[in-house]
């Protein structure tokens, strides 16, 4: 079986409720499912966690309040896994992806970026999604100790030179406009196959 390599890997990060899922869904819609897949590092994490704790996986994957009830414990659970193997969830999340453009929606730690940069050094580009605390609050965020002050939320706050920064705010240029150069890059990457 030929192993297919991605042509472009867009690795997204941002605080919770900054709009990572929203923006990456938008990219997926624009490029279509043949060209692009959205990969969530939290996917295999939530799957395994739901199984071990008899929880509702669909609700854990959704944007509602359900996942917030379990977040602190999921973080702890995931961290013990990552201590054994920092690339554990990266590897699981990318397994079987065949599209030329990969959109990773939720990098949180420098070990996540390191994994993609070392596996796909030429293809990887990092994207930061930014929103003000006010905007995030309107989307349902409130500060939670053990979550918002932990590595899960703060691991990429400094020391990273992002290739792209998107401002997901009502008074910023439209996402459409901000995404244009990234979408152009993705279309080029897919066309050059
Ligand atoms: N530009 C936007 N316009 C409208 N709703 C948005 C926008 N960005 C985010 N949202 C909404 O805000 C909530 C949080 O966004 P989400 O993408 O789930 O954030 P994250 O994945 O970073 O936690 C969701 O309900 C989402 O639909
Ligand atoms: C335990 C987590 O994987 C939970 C992630 O859930 P989501 O990826 O749904 O989070 P947001 O989009 O920021 O709201 C966090 C981690 O530290 O791995």
UniProtKB/TrEMBL annotation:
Entry's EC annotation: 2.7.4.2
Taxonomic classification: Eukaryota, Metazoa, Chordata, Craniata, Vertebrata
Molecular function via GO: ATP binding; phosphomevalonate kinase activity
GO biological process: cholesterol biosynthetic process; isopentenyl diphosphate biosynthetic process, mevalonate pathway
Localization per record: Cytoplasm, Cytosol
Known role: Catalyzes the reversible ATP-dependent phosphorylation of mevalonate 5-phosphate to produce mevalonate diphosphate and ADP, a key step in the mevalonic acid mediated biosynthesis of isopentenyl diphosphate and other polyisoprenoid metabolites.
UniProt binding sites for substrate: 168
Pathway(s) annotated for this protein in UniProt: Isoprenoid biosynthesis; isopentenyl diphosphate biosynthesis via mevalonate pathway; isopentenyl diphosphate from (R)-mevalonate: step 2/3
GO CC annotation terms, alphabetical: cytosol
Principal cellular location given in the protein's record: cytoplasm
Top-level taxon: Eukaryota
Protein name per Swiss-Prot or TrEMBL: Phosphomevalonate kinase
Keywords for this protein: ATP-binding, Cholesterol biosynthesis, Cholesterol metabolism, Cytoplasm, Kinase, Lipid biosynthesis, Lipid metabolism, Nucleotide-binding, Steroid biosynthesis, Steroid metabolism, Sterol biosynthesis, Sterol metabolism, Transferase
Positions with a binding annotation for ATP: 15-21, 139, 178
Catalysed reaction equations from the record: (R)-5-phosphomevalonate + ATP = (R)-5-diphosphomevalonate + ADP
InterPro entries: P-loop_NTPase (IPR027417), Pmev_kin_anim (IPR005919)
């Amino acid at each position: 079986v030929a192993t297919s390599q991605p042509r472009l890997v867009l690795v997204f990060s941002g605080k919770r409720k900054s709009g990572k899922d929203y923006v990456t869904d938008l990219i997926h819609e624009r490029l279509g499912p043949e060209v692009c897949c959205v990969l969530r590092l939290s996917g295999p994490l939530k799957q395994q966690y739901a199984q071990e704790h008899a929880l509702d996986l669909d609700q854990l994957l959704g944007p509602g309040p359900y996942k917030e009830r379990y977040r602190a414990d999921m973080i702890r659970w995931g961290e013990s896994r990552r201590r054994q193997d920092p690339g554990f969830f990266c590897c699981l999340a990318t397994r079987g992806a065949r599209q030329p453009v990969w959109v990773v929606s939720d990098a949180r730690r420098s070990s996540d970026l390191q994994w993609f940069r070392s596996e796909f050094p030429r293809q990887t580009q990092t994207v930061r999604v930014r929103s003000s605390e006010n905007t995030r609050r309107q989307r349902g965020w409130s500060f939670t100790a053990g979550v918002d002050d932990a590595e899960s939320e703060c691991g990429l706050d400094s020391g990273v030179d992002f290739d792209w920064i998107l401002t997901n705010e009502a008074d910023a240029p439209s996402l459409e406009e901000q995404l244009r150069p990234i979408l152009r890059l993705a279309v080029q990457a897919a066309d050059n196959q």
